[in-house]
Amino acid sequence: MKPGLATHDRAMVVAVGLFVLLGLKPLRADDSEAPRAIFVMQPDGSAVRRVVFIENFRWLAAPRWSHDGKRLAFAALGPKPSRCLMVDVSGRNLSDLGLGKRPDWSPDDKQIIFEAAGDHGATVSVQNADGKGSSALVTGGGPRWSPDGSQIAVLRPLRILDMVQGGERPVFDETDRVAETLGAAWSPDGQRLAAVVRRNTATELLIVAASEPITAPRVRWQGALDGGIDWSPDGRRIAVSIRDHQLAARRLYLLDPDGTDPPALILGQQGDNCEPAWSPDGGHLAFASSRSDAAGASLAMAAPGGRLELVRTHDKGGTVFSAAFSPDSRLAFLGGDVAHREMQVWDLMKDEVLLNIKMPGIFVAISPDGLRAACAELAGNDVQLLNLDHGTVIRSFAHGAQVIFVQFSPDGSRLASAGVDNTACVFDAATGAELTRMAHEGAVKQVAFSPDGKLLATACGDKKVHLWNATTGKLIRQLEHPAAPWSIAFSADGRRLASGTGGEQIGRWSDFDVQPATDYAVRIWDVETGNLALQLTGHTDSIASVAFAPDGKRIVSASLDRSLRLWDAQSGEELSRVAGKGWVTRSIFSSDGTLVLATGGAEKNMQTNRWYEAPNERVRLFKITQPGARPVKASP
Questions:
Q1: Residue 45 — very low, low, confident or very high, per pLDDT cuts 50/70/90?
Q2: In DSSP terms, which residues pair with 209 in a beta bridge?
Q3: Residue 586 host element (H or E)
Q4: DSSP 71
Q5: Would you tell me which CATH number, out of the four given (3.40.980.10, 3.40.30.10, 3.60.20.10, 2.120.10.30), belongs to the domain 8-241+257-289?
Q6: DSSP per position, 515-555
Q7: pTM, whole model, 2 decimals?
Q8: CB-hemisphere CA count at 13 Å for 385?
Q9: What is the pLDDT of residues 250-279, one digit of tens each?
Q10: What is the spatial distance between Cα 301 and Cα 305, in angstroms, rounded to a whole number?
Q11: What CATH number labels 307-625?
């Protein structure tokens, strides 16, 4: 097995030991008042992932990438004295660099420069990356190393230190009338500086030559900038944070340093976002944020509309019937296929397989803590609970018949299964004990816990969706359908339920013999009243999967009509469609709502009983982009 999952437990032990040494307390994923954390995302706002957060500090700030792209240095601020810390981009191996803030790496990653508190104000200091050998350089703050390491830009006031010849020179003179510099960043060639300054009662982004003689600065933009600024490695974009007064929060924007267009908003943001930092390859931005998706909680998409854009495909070797995202959406757990009878853990960021599990688990789920997984075996009567790091079986849950769907409760304490024996079961995930069993008048195709874990919805071949008390197993309500509901999903607020219908199945589930139906619609129901709120039509075959986006504004559906479709959950409008050669068996959103994972990869001809492969469609990762997106003018 490749490193990554296997080292997780050891990394956690190291991290916990470090927190004890520092007198810190790791924040639990279910804490409601999370401090500001460090996140990473792609420049288009997709694939948002939290890297690190620490409870005992009020917020984390000023992330900076090492030049090898493997680590982030950042500051932990208030109420304790500010400290500079370092962590792997994976979120592992947290280490303490000592007192200070606003760290930055030397070009060879061997030293850290930072702002330290001094007897007569802030001081710029430098030390080895292991935290040793600290020495003060000059008074000032916010230091930024030049790309070649020969110079350092320092704030208060903005000036350039010559690390080779010694001495320093100012960037602005009295004629520039700069009252204060809030932040500065070097261009990748080291020839220019971008600086956020206050002058003439306004906040401006200035571009100025860094070499002597320093010429008059050019005003690139004026508005509510806060000083967070970084230049992309290719020199074509600058990332800035700008305050949106209507939202009472900051947002991240991109602009062309040599252009004239206003900054373009990065879509999909939530919370107060600031201090962007480009990765060395330009593929990601690190930033500090108050967004509350500590463990994959609901996020808001930025705007209505959207389309599905293919990011990459993965060929598992045979039909993939099911998949699940890890809570941080970095990993995908892929259900087994009939041919290879194995499951996989796929790292989406690195596009590599971390683990092959030799077990024919067809339907899969991942626990909310990301440490365990469950699978329903092909032709098996039990559900297996696995250690996701190693793929070893922890325990079995005796359903008693073939299981065709599994799901964890939101707190991970229970596991629900759907069986062809016309029952749904809820088990204690810690002991394997059966807690309740709900009888139906047809095969149960899917189960879904409500977000608060109080309800269990079941999709049944009796043409009904049943709502049960998930603790007692008492039937609360039934939702009548014109055809058998194949798929169900709750919205994140628990107020709505989506269902997708299809034809009745003949014989064994694995044969995929399905009678034609007269109804292939996605329906949205009011959970409290049981009333039908909206009907989405367009599919022409059974709808194997439905899912709400975390913000509740979109729905994605997968169908045996070979299409994956994105819908507006408020109006019912079809926003985007991807058509292929094979069935689409499962579609799920990432925790931040910006990605969709779809599985499938084959089709069965019902007349000839032959299977036809579609290798490029076995596992597909899509991002949701805004059609015809234009730069959004920032609030001045």
A1: confident
A2: 192
A3: strand 584-589
A4: E
A5: 2.120.10.30
A6: ---S--EEEEEETTT--EEEEEE---S-EEEEEE-TTSSEE
A7: 0.55
A8: 25
A9: 999 999 999 998 999 988 788 889 999 999
A10: 10
A11: 2.130.10.10
